[in-house]
Each structure stands twice: as structure tokens, then as C-alpha cells.
Amino acid sequence: MAADQHASSPPVEQNIIEHPTTTGLDNRKMAMWAFLGSDTMFFGSLIAAYLVSHGRAANPPYPAQLFDIPFTSVSAFVLLMSSVAMVLGLAGIQNGDLRRFRIWIVTTCLLGLVFLGGQVYEFTEFYHEGLSLSTNLFGSAFYTLTGFHGAHVTLGVVWLFSLVIASFRQPLVTKEKALNVEIAGLYWHFVDIVWIIIFAVVYLIEV
Amino acid sequence: MVVDTDQQHHTQEEEHHHPSSREYANIAAILSAITAVEVALYFITGVSHATLVVMLMALMVVKFVYVVAYYMHLKYDHPYFTLIFAGGLFVSISIVLALGALFGIYSGGGEDIIRELPGE
Known about the structure:
The complex is a heterodimer. By secondary structure, chain A is mostly helical. Helix content of chain A is about 75%, strand content about 0%. Chain A starts with a helix and ends with a helix. The N and C termini of chain B lie far apart (about 65 Å). Chain B is mainly α. At the A-B interface, helix 3, helix 5 and helix 8 of A face helix 1, helix 2, helix 3 and helix 4 of B.
């Protein structure tokens, strides 16, 4: 009897009913865009705090003494290229090409790790030059802004790695469920555009 | 039972029109070129600070728009997503402009509002 019931009931996957929404748009994607909109305000506040404190540090070291623009330019380029790898990975899963998805998402993760390694190196160098979180206004604002960005990159790397692992273990990452990858991709690109702003405003312009 | 409305069909068709791999690569080349120009501008001497700021900000905005429009697919997605993100962006820019004006970062003033004392 129990065996008959089990045989007649459809698989779990088929039991999942996707309810229509009033907008016709997926709630998860809408939620991610809402989160990104709010995170924009968060980073806007940190950038504003950096600009307000800029040039008002009473004690050295100052930005001009520390910034290594060629090094940071390479980091910015690496993060930019990780966005390209991300969209190619998404295109892979949307076309049902799991191998292509894995290759490009792992590439994205590796580029993200290279960026993080560069940030750790930069922070270490700055610390040895005498800039800590409490040295001056510049140190507090700079480490807070770039540190929170680094934390976002770290979360993104963990998220993307988990998707790659999930693609081996369970049917969470398939062509039909490409939205799971697209949402992670939105987060990753957001991290990239935040760095586009930080690179220009904090490093290059030096208001 | 999976319910599909015409609106959802329309939305899904819109969402599935994404750039090709070649287009993604072309955009990557444009973004790389802009980054190279940004760095070159930093090292070019003889350009006034005001001009440098305007040019770097313009290039930054172009890169931002390219990533958001093509890599985040806002150009092809439903306008609601653009609206939600633009709302947050508007507030964010307002915060930067308002705090900048309050603390005098455009005029170089504001020392009486925020000043770090030596040895603090």
C-alpha cells in the first residue's frame, strides 16, 4: 500500500509549484535588487564618510604617501575580469553547459581570491608604514570602506564556490534553475561596480 | 499545477534575451580600455585637478553603466528592477552630495565642523 502510494506520487521536484506574482517577476530576483539598492546606500554612506574625513588627518601617514596606483590598478583589472568570467559562467548554465559553468565560475572565484590577496597585501603594507584603524581619520575611513568591500568579495567567493559544489551534489544548479546563478551573479557584479567607484574616488581622484 | 500568465511569458522572453559571449568580450575590452585611460590620466601631469576629477568621474560613470546595463542585464530586464536599484542609487548619491556640502568638501571648508587634533 505504502509502496503504491510512493509509486503514484510525483517526484519532489514536480511537486514544487511556482506561484505567479502580481508583477510577473521572480520574488527572489526582486529581493536581490532591493538588497543591492539598500547596499548602495550603505556604501554611499561609507564613501561620503571617507570624503568628509579626507585631507583632515592631523597625523601621517597620508594617502599620497601610501597608495601604490599601479598595484591597485592591477587589482581593479582583476576584479573587472572576474565579472566577465561571471557572465560567461551564467551563459554556460543558461545553455545547459554544466562544464562551461564550472570552469568560468571557478575562474571567477580564483580572480576574486587574487583580488582579496592583493587587498591583504595592501593592508599589511599600509600597517607596516604606520597606518592602523586608529592612527588617523584617513586610516579609520579607508580601512572601514575597503574592509567592508573586501568582506563583500569574500562572501561572494564563498557563495560562488558553494554553487560549484552544489552543481556536483544536487540538482540545485541546472539550466532550469539558472536563476540561482543569476542572483549570485548580480551580487558579484555589484561588488565590482562598488570597486569601480572606490578605485576612482578613493585612489585616483584623491579629492 | 503551474500557473503561467501572459505577463509572465512576456517577462521571461525579455529576461532570456542576453548578450552573446562575443558581446560580453567586447564589453570587457571596452571596460579594460577605460580603466587604462583612467590610470593614464592619473599619471599625466599638466592637467588641472578639476579637469582630472571631471574626466575620471565621467569614465567611472561609463564603466558603472556598462556593467549594470550589460553584465547585470538591466538593459534587457524588466524596468521594475531598474527602478528599485535607481531608488537606492539616488538616495546614495544624495547622501554623498549632502554630507559633502555640509562638511564643505567642495569649497575646502568645514574645518570648524570636523577637525582631527594632532596626537588624537
